[in-house]
Design brief:
Nucleotide-binding universal stress UspA family protein, globular, Rossmann fold, UspA, five-stranded parallel sheet, 5 strands, 8 helices, alpha/beta
Length: about 170
């Protein structure tokens, strides 16, 4: 029986991983689930002007909002779980937590994207595959629509347009 680490940011994609973990628990494949939410740190400017206690409270409040639905689903299904919150780089915090908590694997939900988008985007999934010392199981959402599969991401398209204008 496995111990899973579920990164959760409250999105529908993250909840796919939660439902996957619930199904695995019902099959008897999972013993424990650790849910983690990683909040980005405040900038140095904000940190200078806002007390540490207030920053901590805000991080905890945002984490609770992000994890709320996952917690409800796990509790309703009777899945044993622990909630963890961190502040820092998401991929690094998740990888460290997976080692610290002795998780057998990380289960992450993700949106299906075109090959072009995956190639130019430094996604959390790609970072976890690079940093994690345990297996990363990726649960994909519904397939991307035809236009999304062939489309150029907005940032790449804007960058190409600027290069074209600059070269003209």
């Amino acid at each position: 029986m496995a111990t899973l680490l579920l990164p959760c940011d409250g999105t529908s994609n993250a909840l796919l991983a939660v439902r996957h973990a619930i199904d695995a628990f019902r099959r008897g494949d999972v013993l424990m689930v650790h849910v983690i939410n990683v909040q980005p740190p405040f900038s140095a400017y904000v940190a200078r002007h806002v007390s540490r206690e207030l920053r901590t409270d805000l991080h905890l409040e945002r984490a609770e909002e992000a994890i709320g639905e996952a917690r409800q689903q796990l509790e309703a299904a009777g899945v044993p779980h622990h909630i963890h919150t961190e502040v820092g780089d998401r991929a690094r915090c998740i990888a460290v937590a997976a080692r610290r908590l002795h998780c057998d694997r990380v289960v992450i939900g993700t949106a299906r994207k075109s090959a072009l988008v995956r190639a130019v985007e430094n996604s959390l999934t790609a970072q976890l595959l690079e940093h994690c010392s345990v297996p990363v199981e990726v649960i994909g959402s519904a397939p991307a629509a035809a236009l999304e599969r062939v489309g150029i991401p907005a940032g790449v398209g804007a960058g190409m347009a600027l290069l074209w204008v600059a070269g003209s």
